[in-house]
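COURSE: Structural Biology Practicum
ASSIGNMENT: Worksheet 4, Part C
STUDENT ID: 0417
INSTRUCTIONS: Below are two proteins. For each, the amino acid sequence is given first, followed by its structure token string. Answer the questions at the end about the second protein only.

PROTEIN I
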Amino acid sequence: MKIGRWQGPAGVAEGFIHNGGVIEFLGRWSVSDALAAGLPDLRSRFDLATAEGSAVPLSEVRLLAPLRPATVRDFVAFEEHVEGITAGVQGRSEVPPEWYQAPTFYFSNPHTILGDGDQLSPPVSDRLDFELEVAAVIGGQEGGVSNLTPEAAARHIFGYTIMNDWSARDLQAREMKVHLGPAKGKDFGTTLGPWIVTADEVDGFLDSEGFLAVRAEVFVNGELIGTDLLSNMGWTFPELVAYASRNSLVVPGDVLGSGTVGNGGCLGELWGRNGSLTPAPLREGDEVRIAVEGLGEIMNRVGPAVSAPPIAVARPGDRRRVR
């Protein structure tokens, strides 16, 4: 099953994407309701909706981001990506020993989510980049769950969607020198879409170790830039979800990105490997298309950069301890 959100003749609607069309949920249901209820309830509603609901061709609607995330965690789960990106961002190629010890992630911005076809409004940047990723979407257990085992975590993965973690590498490089972040180098836009594919639909791609062996590709202005198998991750998605839940909560609507695939999953990796800004950073008008086997494809165009108000530099205190 595939679920999502779209803009149609009657406004925004939510429901199933099926056989080249969209079918609204019955009973004023929403994607958020579906995620909270979990897959078993969704299957029964799918049977009712396809039997009683009327389909509208996909060509007559505009797909929106398939959900409004509760949170967005973005991991760095591909060793090959780490090798390349550290050279581009930090000036030397390395995989820290700590990377192998446990999965690492940062929290991104759930308020700047884009959908398929939306235009990106980037900050002023000389090193604008994309990131080819896949994200797991959490469902079930409305109050949230914590301290999951990977086996239990697998039961809370509702489905998957494509993710593009847009990045301003020059801003990111400055932030990372302070040993915190990334922040403004990342939080201006994340694309999710075109829909959520339920986990059972991709079970056939799971290898013997539980990795999703799907092919992922990214194109800029029609040119293939990078391609990889998602099974090159260092951890499975259930292991990522289990780690995220440690001494914390994962709740329905949480989005957990795989991190950028290797072999050209972003320009920053290639810049690090090539020792130059080759291929060129993204510019206004560039079209970025990502295709993932079994999940579909998303496309966004880069819009004009948005200048932000200036920020003052720090004013170090005189370190007095009393007024």
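PROTEIN II
(use this one for the questions)
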Amino acid sequence: MSDDIKSQIEKIGQSWEASKKAQDELDAKVEKGLGGVAEIKAKQEKIDSDLNSALEAKKSIEALEAAVARMAESVEEKSEKKVDNSAYNSAIKKWLSAKSPESLKLNEAEQKALQSNIDPQGGYSVMPFIGGVEKIAFESSPVRSLATVQTIGTDEYKGFYDDDEFDTGWVGEISTRAETGTADLGMFSIPVREVYARFKISDRLLEDSMFNMEAWSQQSVADKIARTEATGFVTGSGSLQPQGLATATANTSTPAGYVRGQIGTKTAAGAAAITTDELVDLRTNLKAVYRPNAYFAFTRATEGYVRKLKDGQGNYIWQPSYQMGVADSLLGQRVVIMEDMADIATGAVSVILADFRSTYMIVDRVGLSVLKDVYSAAAQGQTLFHIRKRVGAGIKNWDSMKYLKQA
């Protein structure tokens, strides 16, 4: 575990304890009708801001270290002579994770591996770049990493619902055995949809830009397409888009029951509030067999709300994770942030509890396809790019997911 991760975990622990203390003070003053509430609220907002920053930093460092590990493992030998990549891999990890060049602290072998004017053993080098591109982080929903993903060779996936059962009964030794009922299967399909981008770049810009404009634009579009499909996986209408996790028909009459094509739904008493008991009821509605792999899913704003909820003994029901790569927990269930969901608001599905791998299937037909057209807009001095991806998604198990819906 890196020092950065350890530092952020320490900050999380300190901020969380301070947040609980401030919330307890606030609750006590409100209960007794004492003054000073505004001062404590301001203090708590600052602490919560620090806690949010530490949590986000931990997630970012985890993602960065995973990416660096993949990069280091992918370095190939580029000459017939066997190359020792250990110095390069070590140096590149430090370079990518450094806050400033001065903080690299490379040893002699690592320094040599990163010098741009030396080209030993396969040409490993890191070139300095003036005028870097600073990209902001866009928030999304990590549905693909949680769902079942299947690559198909047609324009539609067909599956079966095995949600009925055979009848059985008890009988005496020589009693007549009456015929029992049989189970019926249901069929469902997940059609493949298409997401695309079509844009032009001037030939001069492609030729004269100080960095690779073509590669940058394609990478940016690929990132946007990934976020577009993630949004579709959560809120998709099913018409030209995938069927979204949060857009299914809600079954509010039997929240713990099963109806094919509907999601069991607990309705919150308030339009702008969630209680601990309602989250407990939501968890109770999900069958025990699905809970080991289930996650609570909601937005960061909703996370900020439920973090302050307590049980009947005054214990906080949300617990931050102090281990790298381990999700935070709520009532013993793991938590995932899905920014494409709705915040707490009238009629909104604000919380989902689901075993996403059992619930949702993503079908990939064609990966990212790039068509570079240098002819159609040549008269205007432009190159046309057409980028597309074919993907579909839908609910395959209506029993392994539950909604909490605001009044």
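ANSWER KEY EXCERPT:
Q1: The radius of gyration is 27 Å.
Q2: Confidence is low (pLDDT under 50) at residues 73-81, 113-131.
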